[in-house]
Amino acid sequence: MQATPDPPSAQRIFQVIQDAASQNHVIAQAASEQLETFKSIPGIFVTVQAVAIERNLPLDARKMAIFQFKNVVPLQWRRGQLYPDPVKQTIREGMFRFLDEPDDIIAQSNAIAMAKIARIDFPRAWPDLGSRLLETVHTGLQQVYIQHNGDPQRSLALLRALGTLNQVLKELTIAKVPILAAAVLTLVEQIHEPLLTTYAQATTAFGHDLSPENLASIEKANHIRIAHYAFKCLVKGISFLWQRSRVKGFERAEAVVEAFFGTAVNHFISLSQLRIQLFAANLSANLTGSLTQSYLSRHIRVYGKFFRKTQVFSAARFVKLPNCRELVLHYWSRVVSASAAPKNEVQDDDNAPYPVRFLTQALAIFKDSLAQWSPSRQPDNQDILPKEFVDGAVQLIVTRLLLLDEEDLEKWSEDPEEWINVEESDSDAWEYGVRPCAERVLLTLANQYGDYVAPLIRTYLEQVRAETSTDLPSIIRKEAVYCAVGRCAHRNKNNINFDVMVRETLAAEATNPAPTYRIIKRRIAWLFGKWATENSISNCKDIVFQTLINLIRDRGDGSDAAVRLTAASAFRECIDSISFDLGVFIPFIQPSLEALLALVMESETQDSKRRVIGSVNALVAGVGSEIVPFMGQIVEPVTILWQHPDVDIPLRAEIMMTVSKIVEAAKEHSAPMAPITIILIQECLTPTLSVQMEEDAVNLWLISLRNALPSRDPSIPDLFQLLPNAVGLLYSNLDLLGSICQIVESYLLLDCPRVLQEQALSLHQGYLQAYTTANGLNVKDVLSAAMLMVQLAPSNMWAEAMHASGFFAKMLSSIIEDKAKNDNTLVLVEVLQLFARMIMQDAGVFVQLVAASSTHLNQSADYLMTGFLDQWWAKFDNVVDAPRRKLVALATAELLATGNRVVVERLATSEAINIWLDVMGELREALNVQLGDDNQESPLVLFWKKMDLYILPDRLEEVDETLELERRKEVFQRDPIRNAPLKEFIKQKMAQAQQAAGVNGVDFEAALGKVDGSAMASIQKEFSLPRLYFPPSRNLATKRPQPFSESQNNGHGFSDSVKEGLRAPAPLSWRLFAVASVFFAFYYTVRPFDDTRNAVKTSTRLNPRTFVRSTLNSATPSPPESGSKSSHVVVRMTIPPRLLPDPSTTPVSPESATEPGLPNAIYHIYVKDDDMQVERPYTPINGIGNDGKMTFWIKKYTGGEVSNWISRLQRGRSVEIRGPVPQWDWKKGEYDEIVMISGGTGVTAFSQLLHSAFFPSRHVTDAINSNTHFTLLHCHRSPSQMPPNEVTEDFELYRRENAYRFTERAFVDRLDSEADDVPRNVTLGTVDEETLKKTLIERGILVNKKAGFRSTQSVPNPEKSVVFLICGPDGMISAVAGPRPMPNAKDSIGGILGQLGFSPSQVKRL
User: Which of 183, 1259, 1310, 1381 is 20 to 30 A from residue 386's alpha carbon, by CA?
Assistant: First the structure.
């Protein structure tokens, strides 16, 4: 064993540190490498710390030492070998020696290291940390403010102690470990009063005799710095308490916060006024730039950060804090003063009288307080802002704050493109500019005080419309008013006639050639986009389109890039709007394309080009096939743009989208796009671009193939040039394997013979590679592609390649060994389905392949066939849907017809006969179903479809409205499952089997003679039933499936000679004839039936009875709760908007519907697992959007069929759904109170209900005029099991925007671990009687009634119309309202609600 080297001496350590700080790069580099080796030497950083402490050493060396210490020690602190307890104690003691360090950088670095170590050690290993820091603070306070010691070193020690404490609190207060949280609570309580005293002493000393003459003194600077750091420590503690003030164990916190907040407001207002007074005293330049002035500005801004953080955590509680109204109005008064101040006094500079960051804080706090003071939130008129105040605020915003200033105009002129890209970005940058902040304040005023604001905006608009002046101030005023009109467009629909304004004013102004009018033109284009989004333009769309085209084309002095780019963006918004009218737009297609493409080529920045290309894409998608004549016009500039060396990835992605949109729109006319499509896809697959562009390439590839026609001219480039790339990706790209398999399927559907002629062996080698290495779901995709290939091509085109590649042998081996990747039984079932397809295509070739595999697998052919048949029977029960089971039954008969000895001899086991009996029994059960009966108990009914509505292929929704849809339908229509009557097929194949067995020397009679007697009896019973018949109304000549000719289906249909054979069977042995006389006596005719729950229709609207296909957008799982086997998954699906429910057929009362065809409350969507053929109801959390989008939050149990199935699906997979199935309906105003109580995923029902109540239109403020109040109490096992952001963010929005109508409380049974804190706005506990009773009393649902001489009892308020909705686990429902009633039994209410006296009519269990 190699000995550990001796640690370096202190001198050596110092020398290395000093060399690391050297300006000589070579020396510094060598020393840095040596320092790396120090990290693994135990205890060495005690010496490094000592170097930093020693003030006699060079400052650069000390700084290098503390940097190394700060960056290394906290990261290694838990490594006991490097830092044993004595070393840790030495280091902790050494940190306190920096509390009078004169160098700021060294002191700050020590504070950071100390805080990081404190987060690990406090309180267990470092219990005295807080008390020692507080002791230093107390000593400094006594010396500086009580004893008035003027020694600067005393002030420095106090500052350092406060700075270190601030850093420690910053680390500790964000910790979530409950033990640490309790310790931090104790620490905050310990330091609160001493820090308040320190702050009061420092601010008093700072304000005493303060004047311009002594403002810049060191003494005053030290006082404000001490106050600043003391306050930062205080607010960290107070914020910690505020966020936990509703958590058990922190009951005292709220009172502390309220007391501190009220005092802080008073101090803040005084300091803010003091600062303004100092500036009013005409400070000289040296005083303005002094350390004192800088810290005073920073200190005031820290107040603002504290207020804003408090507000963001809970705006509703914020406005109820002491002196909050005074605070907000003071902030607004500062904004008013700043708006009247000279421009040089409003700067992004702490030395300006009105720093921009102060004003943006003021506007943000004012904005979020407005939402709490609106009339809708304050029904008792408390805290409502008077109309005069609102009028003044709107006037100030429109006439001052929205005005473009000199800096804006200068930036616009210098770089219009950059300015507009920043101006219209979707980021949160608005929080850092006064004008963008003011726009949001105006929008909030319009939302909350719409009755006041809308008439004012109209008045301002009328004033500026009358102005004809083109001077710059007039232009800027008009632009501000137009901005206000656009921001408040949703509030002005009934106040402003937008069509008249376009015709009489805006269209003419957009042609004004004055250079200053570019400001107005840009805003006009922006207005058009806003109004189109709000559907406010109806009768002048042609004028709007022509105006936007003119604005994009205009290259005169009255325009610039900012105008043109804004017009391009507005163009996209107009086309994307719901009210887009293609008929009106057709004449504008060519000129708009010309204008947009010219703008793309002349734009300088990548962002600008991408924005304009986005508008082109919207245009292509909007006009559909009308784009065909203009494809070449688009391709040329797009190609040039792609080839530019500086084009970035986002722009390339947008170009790919352009080509995709053109191909989608052009469909059968898209062949001219093939050359550019090929080039783009090939380039995206190169190593340079593949990491970022591969998915874009695959999407374009799929779209192009699905809309392509088979090539008629081999000299013309087509998509088959990319076929080798697709096959190659089967080998190399497991991440996109599902999509690659879709590409292969599209090639096969397009021209399967050509695929196999060019790539048969490579394709099968790719199948083998993917089958061997991919996960289960992707393996199913590979097998699906192989099955399609087998259906589309004769066996002589694929059999040899399947054998030579080893693919068949590998699958056969997996079947025989009963083992697939990850032991996935479903994969083995898919392999058997592929084998069934191969047998149906050419059973003889299948038998040959089994025999040929003996060389690959070193087993005899009989062994392999026997092993295959063992699994064929064994896995049959894993095939759960009737179409696939019928395929197995057909293939069994087809395989028997080969006369193979092993197969024929297995007939004696009755396995084949049992399969046939099972499948025919399933068919009969389905066929005997009552029409329209959706309540059948037999699950077999779910396994079959009407023959003329048998399920279409997977991924149907993805290929809908493409040419590939018809190709898939054609394959479906030729499928023997759909066309072959099973009994006749078996009869024919049994006859062939007898003949083939004789040829092969196999004793068919002997095998049949060994058939089990009970199986024979079952057969006789099966065929003793009377023949099924068609109803008289059925036209047999047209409805009965017609057989294929021999040439059409490779011998698996029924030619005339075969049908003749069915009428005159071949001679059989006596036993076979006896069986046949019963077994094949009757012609099997399929009776029509109506299994509406399972019939998948591709053109039918979503309805409760018929399944339609949706597309899975994503299935995002969440981790399971500790110790639980269940977890959750967020599932997003989409159906085409054309398939949204039909209002005329949806079983919902029209007067209560918020959207056409959708229930106005709570409804389920049934989701079907098409592997297991099982359906489950789930509740879309926000219903179904107008765009067809749905989001579900689903609990996933071990063994849960549908939940586990859907969580494994890939994005883009089609999923069968039916619905909406209403669960509860309500009418507007029917109830005063709706109380919702849920457990787990039951909250989704109420999320949907609340969405229908608060979001029946685009805007929250347009919500239905109902006085119903909603109370939601939702319970979950732990914080990790709480709803996803899609739910909780909406609840936060409802609380913020509709607080007077919505109350929410969340509960968790326990924390996920002891290391966690209770999340904000969450209660640790359950909805027990005390909690529910308290909530109902607060809402007036329960009232107190005298129950005796001195006692009272809470009883239901007879004046309140209330309904309780309960959704969750049965145990929770029983506890709250008693168990669900038995069918047909009289309902009664138990549980908490029963004890409180509520009746069955007031309670609904969902």
Answer: 1259
* SS3 category, 830: helix
Within 10 angstroms of residue 326's Cβ, the number of other Cβ atoms is 13
On whether the CB atoms of residues 895 and 838 are closer than 8 A, the answer is no
HEC letters along 1011-1063: CCHHHHHHHHHHCCCCCCCCCCCCCHHHHCCCCCCCCCCCCCCCCHHHHHHHH
- Provide the total of helices (H) and of strands (E) in the chain, helices listed first: 59, 16
List, in sequence order, every residue forming a beta bridge with 325; answer none if it has no partner: none
pLDDT digits (tens, 9 = 90+) for 563-590: 999 999 999 999 988 888 899 999 999 9
Checking DSSP bridges between strand 346-347 and strand 354-355, what pairing results, if any? parallel
Does residue 934 surpass a pLDDT of 70? no
Residue 1027: per-residue pLDDT: 33
Instruction: Express as a percent the part of the chain with pLDDT over 90.
Output: 36
CA angle (150, 152, 154) in 5-degree steps: 85
Q: How far apart are CA 158 and CA 137, in angstroms?
A: 5
- Report which of residues 1297 and 816 the model is more confident about: 816
* Dihedral angle of Cα 587, 592, 593, 596, to the nearest 10 degrees: 180
Confidence (pLDDT) at 1034: 29
Kindly state the helix (H) or strand (E) to which residue 871 belongs, with its residue range. helix 861-874
Residues near 668 by Cβ (< 8 Å), separated by ≥ 6?
707, 709, 963
CB 1193 within 8 A of CB 1181: yes
Contact 48, 57 (CB under 8 A): no
- Would you say residue 1200 has pLDDT above 80? no
Q: What is the largest CA-CA distance in the chain?
A: 127
Cα–Cα separations (whole angstroms), residue 915 to 975, 992, 1291, 1338: 20, 19, 54, 66
397-400 long-range contacts, CB within 8 A, separation 24+: 397/438, 397/441, 397/442, 397/445, 397/484, 398/442, 398/456, 398/457, 398/460, 398/480, 398/481, 398/484, 399/477, 399/480, 400/339, 400/340
Return the number of other C-beta atoms located less than 10 Å from residue 39's C-beta. 15
Secondary structure letter of residue 1181 according to DSSP: B
Residue-wise pLDDT tens digits, 716-743: 778 999 999 999 998 887 888 888 999 9
Owner of token pair 């080009």? 609
Confidence of residue 1049 (pLDDT cuts 50, 70, 90): very low
Residue 1189 pairs in a beta bridge with 1134
Pairing mode, strands 1269-1276 and 1302-1308: parallel
CA dist., res. 1278 & res. 1224, Å (int): 28
Give the C-alpha separation, 1018 to 419, whole Å: 83
Contacts of 702 (CB under 8 A, 6+ apart): 739, 742, 743, 746
How far is residue 554's CA from residue 595's CA, in Å, rounded to a whole number?
A: 9
**pLDDT tens digits, 1341-1389:** 888 776 544 456 788 888 888 999 999 888 888 888 888 776 556 777 8
Q: Provide the b/e sequence for 242-265 (b: ≥16 CB within 10 Å).
A: bbbbbbeebeebbebbbebbeebb
